[in-house]
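Quick one:
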Amino acid sequence: MVREMRRLRCVWVLMLALGVVIAAAPQALAQRSQAEGFSRFELQTAGWRGGYSTVRFSDGVEAEQFVLRPGDCPRVTNDCNADRERIEFSERNPAQPVGSEVWAAWSIYLPADFAVPGSGRVANITLGQFHQRDSSGPELLFVLRRNWLEAELTNPYRLDDDPMNPIPPFEINNVLRTSQMLGRWNRIMVNARWSRGEDGFVRIYVNGNQAWAYNGPTTNSNAPIYFKYGIYRSFASRCGGPCPELTAYYSDVVRGNSREDVE
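Output:
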């Protein structure tokens, strides 16, 4: 038995050396974020094999594929009891201290048949967020609406610690038309200083052009800020049944000290 196991291990190593594609190999690498410049990431997922993978587009672009199915609620996030679903990478400590400045960017692609939210009380689809540790909630969200991708800044003067009854956003700005996200890549870049004082700011650029600028407090706590990307769906019960399956692609997710570092 031991001899057979050694023989199989030698065959495995030889196949890898020869570049043979093994079906299980992509899955073995699937839990590893491709993002650069951040702290280590943890994949928050319900655990099915097809939820996250790395893919290559026909033009050679390498991307991270996230597939959210109805009912995908990871145990670690208690989403099943909180009307939420997700498949999302979450940055671990040390993350980013309050008082510091960040440049972060990512490219995102939504398939042409992506199930865009309708009007009225619909489930929220979040495609990227800057969150805060401890009892504080997200500081900056990118939420897909029927017509726009919205950048939503949480109220920096109130602690938003109840995800089932969130405080209304402090600032909302439309940064990219939803129709422009379907079937094409878009580059989103954020320059922010996380601060409880008036020296805080947020600058958002889409495809190199400034889409929104805000000056003032950007957080209500001293806990570190961490980044999350993938697909997060809250208030899933508003779908009136199983929510549609969603697929999103991310590429070149990076954090740096300057615009040049992340462009």
